[in-house]
């Protein structure tokens, strides 16, 4: 079969972007051409991995550096809201996010039709939380399939029997489910009405309140691991939905450096993601606590290395780490609950403390503790003794270790990027 062109259109965030890179790498091994439709600020990232990338304006035109700073400033401006419960973030962070996301869909309609006409993809993979009408229109007019990738928590595909997305509710806490859904729909309705008006101008049917993106009729790829999936009221049809068990990409090798102290002690990796690194007060507090423990720690501080001085001898900071190469070498992880970090820890069988602040981090934090793969810890309401106790438990809990080993074995035996590539290969025909 002649190679086909498979296009990826990930959300402008590192999690979805790098997941799609993992799948694209596997697609090309099968002889196909992978191309990226990209927020302008991410074009260089995809090109850095050797892929062709086409910029799609998702906002007012601005330089890539300005775009990156926009999202940094957006997150940093919301740091006070990260102290709030998920339901109390709906009125501020969540509302502001959805306004920006709807605007991105409107802006994409200007560039996407022309780019799709030039690239002529045989399959289009979209990793986002909102519909881009041009994708559906191109697929319908050209008889091509489109695929939805769900790189956030599994509950992005709703089911009344499971916690609503972004809620952080326990699986069986139905009162929490109801309260969150009601508040979300109340706050989001004006934004949703605006989006439905836009869909109408594009010839698309309106979505029910709370829904901004439908499941693909062709295939939906969930990065979520089956060992921690929710008990749905309506099980997902495997003919339309497939679990990928994570999509760990190939990245550059990493050699653990020699520390000034504690080189014979357990190694931690601490990261709150590329955007969460702006909360340097929190990271400094964690560093100060770790300094007193019999461990070593690699700490991802993003673009803020200049904020740190007089580091303890058992801590090394960096602006970036090739995470899939680092996590296999550590003993435990502290992270923010992004789905990449969540699935990579499970894939490599590493326990994690999740200190969530936004979006599906709340869901993943609750889920890691509910399923016995780690701990949930409030981002700010903790003391050094509590943190030290959870770190010690991660390093010594034999039942947790056995559970992680089983989950890791399950995930690695399926290898998500390869599975995704094979499914896309079939769809491409």
Summary of the model, kept short:
The chain is of the alpha/beta class and 429 residues long. It has helices spanning 14-29, 43-48, 64-77, 90-119, 133-142, 174-201, 273-276, 280-290, 323-326, 339-347, 361-370, 384-396, 398-414, 416-428, and strands at 5-10, 33-38, 52-55, 123-127, 146-150, 219-222, 241-243, 267-271, 296-300, 315-318, 332-335, 352-354, 374-376.
What secondary-structure arrangement, pairings included, does this model have?
Layout: E1 5-10, H1 14-29, E2 33-38, H2 43-48, E3 52-55, H3 64-77, H4 90-119, E4 123-127, H5 133-142, E5 146-150, H6 174-201, E6 219-222, E7 241-243, E8 267-271, H7 273-276, H8 280-290, E9 296-300, E10 315-318, H9 323-326, E11 332-335, H10 339-347, E12 352-354, H11 361-370, E13 374-376, H12 384-396, H13 398-414, H14 416-428
Parallel strand pairs: 1-2, 1-4, 2-3, 4-5, 5-6, 6-7, 8-9, 8-11, 9-10, 11-12, 12-13
Helix pairs in contact: 1-14, 4-5, 4-6
Would you kindly provide a written description of the structure presented here, covering whatever features stand out?
- The protein has two domains: 5-248 and 414-428, 3-Layer(aba) Sandwich (Rossmann fold); 267-412, Glycogen Phosphorylase B (Rossmann fold).
- β4, α5 and β5 form a beta-alpha-beta unit.
- The protein is α/β, with parallel strands linked by helices and 429 residues long.
- It has 14 helices and 13 strands.
- The strands form two sheets. It has a seven-stranded parallel β-sheet, with helices on both faces. It has a six-stranded parallel β-sheet with strand order 10-9-8-11-12-13, sandwiched between helices.
- The chain is globular and about 60 Å long.
């Amino acid at each position: 079969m002649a190679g086909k062109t498979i296009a990826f259109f990930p959300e402008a965030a590192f999690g979805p972007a790098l997941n799609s890179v993992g799948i694209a790498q596997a697609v090309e091994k099968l002889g196909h051409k992978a191309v990226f439709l990209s927020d302008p600020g991410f074009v260089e990232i995809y090109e850095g991995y050797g892929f062709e990338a086409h910029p799609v304006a998702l906002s007012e035109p601005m330089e890539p550096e300005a775009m990156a700073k926009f999202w940094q400033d957006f997150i940093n401006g919301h740091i006070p809201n990260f102290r709030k419960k998920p339901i109390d973030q709906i009125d501020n962070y969540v509302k502001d996010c959805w306004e920006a996301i709807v605007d991105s869909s409107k802006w994409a309609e200007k560039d996407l039709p022309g780019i799709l006409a030039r690239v002529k993809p045989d399959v289009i993979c979209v990793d986002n939380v909102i519909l881009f009408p041009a994708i559906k229109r191109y697929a319908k007019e050209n008889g091509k399939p489109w695929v939805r990738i769900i790189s956030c928590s599994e509950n992005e595909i709703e089911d009344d029997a499971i916690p609503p997305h972004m809620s952080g509710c326990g699986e069986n806490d139905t009162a929490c489910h109801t309260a969150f859904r009601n508040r979300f729909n109340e706050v989001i309705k004006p934004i949703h009405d605006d989006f439905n008006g836009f869909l109408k101008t594009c010839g698309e049917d309106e979505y029910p309140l709370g829904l901004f993106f439908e499941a693909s009729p062709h295939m939906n790829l969930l990065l979520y691991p089956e060992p921690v999936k929710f008990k749905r009221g309506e099980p997902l049809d495997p003919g339309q939905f497939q679990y990928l068990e994570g999509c760990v990409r190939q990245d550059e090798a990493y050699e653990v450096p020699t520390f000034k102290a504690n080189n014979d002690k357990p190694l931690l990796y601490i990261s709150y993601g590329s955007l969460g690194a702006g909360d340097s007060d929190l990271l400094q507090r964690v560093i100060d606590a770790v300094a007193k423990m019999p461990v070593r720690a690699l700490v991802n501080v993003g673009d803020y290395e200049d904020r740190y001085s007089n580091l303890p001898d058992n801590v090394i900071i960096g602006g970036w780490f090739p995470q899939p190469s680092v996590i296999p070498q550590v003993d435990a992880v502290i992270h923010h609950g992004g789905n990449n970090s969540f699935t990579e820890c499970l894939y490599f069988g590493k326990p994690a403390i999740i200190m969530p602040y936004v979006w599906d981090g709340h869901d993943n934090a609750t889920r890691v503790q509910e399923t016995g793969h780690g701990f949930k810890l409030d981002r700010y309401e903790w003391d050094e003794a509590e943190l030290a106790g959870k770190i010690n438990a991660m390093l010594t809990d034999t039942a947790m270790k056995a559970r992680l080993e089983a989950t890791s074995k399950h995930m690695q035996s399926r290898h998500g990027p390869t599975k995704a590539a094979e499914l896309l290969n079939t769809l491409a025909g």
